[in-house]
Write a sequence for this structure.
């Protein structure tokens, strides 16, 4: 996206983006709605970003993303029921088959058939996970942590479902999204119930376009977003 397009739509001061919890997705929606084009480029080798610093920040960030951008409670419940089938059970299958070895032997199933069943279930998942890890440069051995990541994501998903069912909403960067208790905002819109945290008040405000400030010599070429959790970004 060119800087001129960003300025033409009003940047993040646009009414639809000012309180957005998933601003990158909603920015793309606004750009397309105004008739402009978007292109996706591979930024590896140009920018390195640590998205979240620590488990609490990761939990809150993904909880917000699931709650606001998942498509609603039915989708979240379906994902919560289906995720164990692809994230956890395939890794438990060898253990389950070993524990039930007396049963499948009584039914005429050989050890080779049980082993083949485990391999046919696990190998495609391991190969897929390993290929996905290669894109961000992660070692293939991290594939073995897939079930742990699945359990973690299931926990985040379960909390997001519970907050949706109980109308609590989720808090993010000093706002509450999706809460049914204050009746002032619609679905997916922020409730100004919380003030900014001390860390956020201390952060500098970075803007790509500010008519009150002169553009820097490299404007439009390099910008690094601030993170409310102390995360670091670097560009070259």
């Amino acid at each position: 996206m060119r800087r001129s397009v960003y300025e033409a739509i009003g940047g993040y001061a646009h009414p639809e983006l000012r309180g957005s919890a998933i601003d990158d997705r909603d920015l793309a929606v606004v750009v397309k709605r105004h008739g402009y084009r978007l292109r996706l480029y591979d930024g590896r080798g140009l920018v390195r970003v640590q998205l979240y610093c620590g488990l609490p920040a990761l939990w809150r960030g993904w909880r917000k993303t699931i709650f606001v951008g998942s498509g609603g409670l039915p989708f979240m419940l379906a994902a919560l029921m289906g995720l164990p089938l692809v994230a956890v059970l395939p890794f438990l299958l060898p253990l389950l088959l070993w524990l039930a070895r007396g049963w499948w032997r009584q039914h005429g199933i050989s050890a080779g058939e049980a082993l083949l069943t485990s391999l046919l279930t696990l190998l495609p998942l391991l190969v897929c996970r390993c290929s996905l890890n290669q894109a961000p440069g992660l070692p293939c051995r991290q594939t073995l942590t897939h079930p742990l990541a699945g359990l973690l994501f299931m926990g985040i998903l379960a909390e997001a479902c519970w907050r949706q069912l109980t109308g609590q909403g989720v808090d993010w960067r000093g706002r509450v999204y999706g809460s049914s208790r204050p009746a002032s905002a619609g679905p997916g819109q922020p409730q100004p119930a919380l003030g900014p945290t001390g860390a956020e008040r201390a952060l500098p405000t970075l803007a790509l376009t500010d008519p009150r400030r002169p553009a820097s010599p490299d404007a439009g070429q390099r910008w690094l977003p601030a993170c409310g959790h102390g995360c670091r970004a670097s560009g070259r």
Observations:
- The chain has one domain: 42-235.
- The chain has ten helices and five strands.
- Confidence is low (pLDDT under 50) at residues 183-230.
- The CA atoms of residues 87 and 149 lie 8 Å apart.
